[in-house]
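Per reviewer request, we include the raw input and output of the structure prediction for the construct analysed in the revised manuscript.
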Amino acid sequence: LRQAGLPQVKYAAVTRAQVWSNPCVFPKLCDRIEAELGYPCFVKPANLGSSVGISKAKTRDQLEAALDSAASFDRRLIVEAAVPNVRELECAVLGNDNPQTSVVGEITYSSDFYDYETKYTEGLSSHNIPAQIPDAIAQQIQEMSLQAFLAVDAAGLARVDFFYQADTGEIFINEINTMPGFTATSMYPMLWAASGVPFPALVDRLVQLAIERG
């Protein structure tokens, strides 16, 4: 994504070995994260979904605990600087070599961040589709979604998640999900339904794309 010129929040890549293997390395790792990213920051397993294993750290003790927790889920971790006052937007992509994008949706919640409990507890979050954002911002997010899709050589489907700072107009890619949730209440099919592609037609199209891909 960085090579494609797509904006991301500041982050540091960490390995499980750095967290667990050498007690002399771990304090230096935390020092580097504090110096490069500051607080608050988010610690994430690199390869999991549904916000499993993600923690928000506001202090050194919380950072150390978050790294230890995330390392139990994955050998590769990501630590990201928190971006204040952001809106979380999502866009669905469908296709192979000539992908298309859905309308842009927004996830709203009142908790500190969009963690596992907030995602899967009824009433703690809501989906606004389409998102109430300026047309120019929606178009930019759709264009960036296509760029991200092509940058990782995705195929068939993907959902691209963004942070949007309305005060500054800045947009950051949070992540690209190349196998997004596909239940009746998942954002991916909901975004396409709002774009005029109902669930049965979406499934048919994905089958066609898989055959096309070979």
